[in-house]
Structure to design on (349 residues):
C-alpha cells in the first residue's frame, strides 16, 4: 500500500530511467532561466511553452536585457501565451533585480519570494534547482499526483487541504536532492499522472491507492466550482487613410498593456444593427460618414473566469475620427505590437 518512503524512492527511480525528456530547462542551474521557464509554464502546456521559452531566452538572455528593453517588445514575445500579468511582473522584477540588487538574482527562498509574481511554488522551484535548498514544490500537478497515490479526499482548494498537502509534500521531499526530487514529481505529473493518467505503464501503480480502487478520475477533490462570466466584445476595425485606430489597454482588466481596436463591449450578444443604433457607436462616428465593409465570424475564447465572445466589424471612414487614446496605426506597425490572442487569431484569419 501507499507509503511515503516508497513514493519518494519509486519516483526518483522513475526519474533516473526516464531519459525521454529534452526540455532545455532540465537540470538548469541559472536562477534567471529557471524563473522564466517556470513563469511561462504556469497555465501553459509544455509543448507550447517550449517554443516561447526558446524565443524569449534567445532575445533576453539575462535579467538586464529585459530590464532595459522597451516594454512592448517583451510583451510582443509573450503574445499568445495569455495571463499577461505574468509578463508585466517579469518586467517589474527584472528592473528591481537590475536596479536594486545590482543585477544579482536573490539567493534565499525568502528573497526570491519577494519578487513580484513569484509565489511559493516558483520560489521553491528556483531555490531547489539553482541552490539545492530544501523546498518542496506544490502545484496542480503535485496535488494530483499526491491525492491519487495516497488516496486523499481532502479538497485541495481550502485552507485545511492546503496545509495538509504542504506538510505531506515537505515530508516526501528528498532533502539531499531537492532539485531532482522536485523536477521528478513535476515531470511525473506532466507526463504520467496526467489529468487522464497513464496508469497501465505507471511504475508507481502497485501502491497507488487511486489505481487500486479505480478512483483516479475522482481525484483530486475540489470544493469550489468556477463560475465563468460571459463578455461580448465587438471590435470596430476602422480604416482611415490605410491606417487603423488602435490603443493600449491600460485599465486593470484582462489584457492589460496589450493593444486593441475600437471596442464596444456588451453584456449580451448584439446584432450589428443594434450596435449601430447604440449611443456608444454613435459617439464614435458622430456625424462622420462610415461604411461597414464586412463582419467577421463569431470568435470565442475561454479564460479562467471569463468566456470572451465577439466579432470584428471592418469599417472605412473618409474623415478622421476624434477619439481619445486611440492612434492611427499602419498594418506593418500593428504587426509589431502585442495584441491578445483573441485579436491575433482574427488577424491571422
Ligand atoms: S497509477 Fe495512475 S493514478 Fe496512480 S500515480 Fe500512477 S498514473 Fe497516477
Amino acid at each position: 500500500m501507499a507509503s511515503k518512503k516508497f513514493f519518494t524512492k519509486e519516483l526518483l527511480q522513475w526519474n533516473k530511467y526516464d531519459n525521454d525528456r529534452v526540455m532545455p530547462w532540465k537540470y538548469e542551474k541559472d536562477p534567471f532561466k529557471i524563473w522564466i521557464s517556470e513563469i511561462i509554464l504556469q497555465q501553459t502546456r509544455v509543448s507550447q511553452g517550449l517554443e516561447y521559452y526558446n524565443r524569449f531566452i534567445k532575445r533576453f538572455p539575462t535579467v538586464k536585457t529585459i530590464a532595459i528593453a522597451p516594454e512592448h517588445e517583451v510583451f510582443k514575445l509573450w503574445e499568445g501565451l495569455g495571463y499577461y500579468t505574468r509578463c508585466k511582473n517579469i518586467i517589474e522584477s527584472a528592473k528591481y533585480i537590475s536596479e536594486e540588487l545590482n543585477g544579482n538574482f536573490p539567493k534565499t527562498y525568502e528573497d526570491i519570494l519577494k519578487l513580484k509574481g513569484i509565489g511559493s511554488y516558483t520560489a521553491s522551484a528556483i531555490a531547489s534547482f539553482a541552490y539545492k535548498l530544501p523546498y518542496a514544490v506544490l502545484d496542480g500537478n503535485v496535488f494530483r499526483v499526491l491525492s491519487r497515490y495516497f488516496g486523499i479526499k481532502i479538497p485541495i482548494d481550502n485552507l485545511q487541504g492546503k496545509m495538509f498537502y504542504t506538510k505531506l509534500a515537505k515530508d516526501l521531499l528528498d532533502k539531499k536532492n531537492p532539485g531532482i526530487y522536485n523536477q521528478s514529481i513535476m515531470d511525473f505529473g506532466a507526463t504520467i499522472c496526467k489529468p487522464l493518467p497513464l496508469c497501465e505503464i505507471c511504475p508507481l501503480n502497485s501502491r497507488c491507492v487511486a489505481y487500486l480502487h479505480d478512483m483516479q478520475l475522482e481525484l483530486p477533490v475540489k470544493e469550489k466550482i468556477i463560475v465563468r462570466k460571459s463578455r461580448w466584445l465587438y471590435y470596430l476595425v476602422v480604416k482611415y487613410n490605410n491606417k487603423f485606430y488602435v490603443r493600449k489597454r491600460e485599465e486593470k482588466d484582462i489584457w492589460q498593456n496589450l493593444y486593441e481596436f475600437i471596442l464596444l463591449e456588451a453584456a449580451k450578444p448584439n446584432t450589428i444593427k443594434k450596435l449601430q443604433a447604440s449611443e456608444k457607436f454613435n459617439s464614435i462616428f458622430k456625424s462622420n460618414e462610415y461604411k461597414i465593409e464586412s463582419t467577421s465570424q463569431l470568435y470565442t475564447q475561454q479564460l479562467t473566469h471569463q468566456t470572451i465572445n465577439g466579432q470584428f466589424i471592418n469599417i472605412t471612414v473618409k474623415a478622421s475620427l476624434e477619439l481619445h487614446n486611440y492612434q492611427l496605426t499602419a498594418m506593418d506597425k500593428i504587426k509589431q505590437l502585442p495584441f491578445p490572442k483573441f485579436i491575433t487569431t482574427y488577424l491571422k484569419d
Summary: The radius of gyration is 24 Å. Residues 229-348 form a domain with the Nucleoside Triphosphate Pyrophosphohydrolase fold (CATH 3.90.79.10). The chain has a mean pLDDT of 92. Strands lie at 229-240, 243-248, 259-260, 262-266, 290-295, 299-302, 306-317, 327-330.
